[in-house]
Structure formats: structure tokens, C-alpha cells
Amino acid sequence: MRRFILAFSISFWSVVALAQLPWQSGIGTPVTAASFTGVGDTHSAGMVRHYGSIAYSSATRGQNMYNICDANTGTPTCKNIATDASTGLVSSTQSVGSIGTCGSGANQCYIKIACDDVNSVCTLTNGTSAAWPRFIPNAIGSIPGIGCVAASFLVLSGDNLNASAPVSIGATVSTTTVTSGTLQGIADANGLGALLYFSGDNPTKSSFYEGAELKGSLPSVNTFYSNIGTSDGAGNGTIAQNGTTTTGAIGTNTTSGSSPIHICKGNSGDGVSSLDGTVIEVFWNTTDISSNIAALTTTMRANAGN
Q1: pLDDT, the chain, mean
Q2: ω into residue 133 within 30 of 0, thus cis?
Q3: For residue 88, how many other CB atoms are within 10 A of its CB?
Q4: Tell me, what's the pLDDT at 211?
Q5: What is the pLDDT of residue 11?
Q6: What are phi and psi for residue 290, nearest 5 degrees?
Q7: pLDDT lower than 70: segments of the chain
Q8: Distance of alpha carbon 277 from alpha carbon 146, whole angstroms
Q9: What are the residue boundaries of the structural domains of the chain, listed by start?
């Protein structure tokens, strides 16, 4: 009888314990992943490249986004950093090599390589280490950014986009100046499609170029905006700044498939230009995404907090 009671007690409490496990259907507290929506969840058709401090989609969380170094001269110590598998964001708190925690001044870290988490490749770089962009902790809230200054830009050499399609580009970005004479390239594709801050007007305006310049809204300095430039392939385009859109002639250039894309740089009809500011996220799309500007802008701004 005692054996029966003992066996029954063990079985009973085993069942009770198992019932509390989170994977038990309908019983206990289920474990769920944190909610995250990336631009790839909002619109995936035609998305060919995505870089920055925010994951492309919920499925790409946890992938490497940067290789950062403790110096941009000599033989630096470098490491890979990824988006968080839950939040989808790169952490601003990074330590590498001899400088300890990345910051500014003597603690400045540099971005040697940026990774495309659409295709899971890490090849966007610059062969001149002195031109590596800065890793900027807490650029907006707790999110780090790509710090662009003068000739500091990342180049993906030999990258081929769709050779028969127009290109649309989106970026969450800030600039340090909007005065006349400060043409600034945010990102481009093969020197034919470029997201810019255009200085043809005074002060500078957000703009998109694909054979012709389409100028949009006036940005404020040191303020992050989610800018999207689109093309329909027939000469019509849109430039949007935080969802405020301007439509008009944009040109009919298509990607050539023979030149690199850039971050922190553009090559428009006005010549090569570099951004003075910070990039949080940037993507390239080879379709007309004008009908998705509102939804993509909402996602970009929600994730960056701008």
C-alpha cells in the first residue's frame, strides 16, 4: 500500500510540474519572442540591399551588421557586432581592443565593414582605412549610427544590382548642415540613383536623383528623418521626408550593374558628394515603392524613434 501511495504521489506531482511548462499547449505561460517589424516585414518585394543598425526583418534579427575596429590606422583590433535576436537593434555598448568601450575622441571606434542582412553578406567596406566611417554610440536614443564626415564613406566594390530596373532608396539619416553649397550624398546605386541633401536651393533640401534632381522638404540640422526616394522607371519619382512627399520628374537612369553602391556618398549629376551626418538604416529596392512610402516610413520611424 505504501509503495502504491508513493508511486501515485510521484506520478501526480510529475504531471503537475509538466503542466506548468511554457510549451504545454493551453497550460502555463507561453514564451513569445519580442515584437519587431522591420522594413522587410512591411515591404519585401524588390528589396535587394539593407544596411545599418536595425534588422531588415524579424527573421534576420541576430545577424552581423558591422565589423568595428579600435583604430583606423596601423593594425587595429576588430570584431563583428549583430542586431539583438529579440529587439532587432544593434547595441551602442560595444568594447573592442585596447580602447575599451566605444565612445568618442580617444575611445572612437570605426566601421570597417557593413553587412547586408537581406543577403547575409558582409562586404561593404573601404580599402582606405583612414576613410572608415565612425561608429557613433547612441546616435538616436540607444541606437548607434554610421558617422559620415568629408571623404568618409563605405564602398561595396563590384556589387551588381538589377541592370534593367530603376532604383528606390530609403534611409534614416541626419545632417550637420543645411547651408548653401553643401551637396551631400546619403546613399547611391552605381552613381545613377542617389538619395541626397541638395544645395541647389538655399538652404539644402532632401532630394532624389535618377538623371534629374527632385527636391523635397527642408531638413533641420542634427535631426533624424526617414527619407525615401522612388522611381517608376518612366521618368516620374517621389522624394519623401518623414512621409511628406514631393512628386515630379526624376529621370530614367537604370542601374548599370558595373559600379558600386555607397553609404555616406552620392554621385549625382552635380558630382561626387559626401554626407556630413549620421546614417541609422539604409535600403535599396529595384521596384517603384511609391505606394508603400507611408507604411515604410512608419516602420522606419518606429524602429529609430524619430
Answers
A1: 84
A2: no
A3: 24
A4: 83
A5: 42
A6: -60, -35
A7: 1-33, 150-154, 156-160, 162-164, 180-182, 191-192, 199-202, 255-259, 267-272
A8: 8
A9: 1-32, 39-304
The CATH-assigned architecture of domain 39-304 is Sandwich (2.60)
* E strand residue ranges, the chain: 47-52, 64-69, 78-82, 109-116, 121-125, 134-140, 143-148, 154-156, 168-175, 184-189, 193-198, 205-209, 213-215, 225-231, 235-241, 244-251, 261-263, 265-268, 271-274, 277-285
- Identify any residues that bridge with 188 across adjacent strands, giving them in sequence order: 194, 262
Report yes or no: 178 and 220 within 8 Å, Cβ to Cβ: yes
The whole-angstrom separation of Cα 8 and Cα 2 is: 10
Which DSSP string do the residues of 226-259 spell out, in sequence order?
A: EEEEEE-SSEEEEEEETTEEEEEEEE-----SSS
Beta bridge partners of 179: none
Report the amino acid identity of residue 165.
A
b vs e for 172-181, b when ≥16 Cβ sit within 10 Å of the residue's Cβ? bbbbebbeee
Three-class DSSP category at 210? coil
pTM comes to 0.86
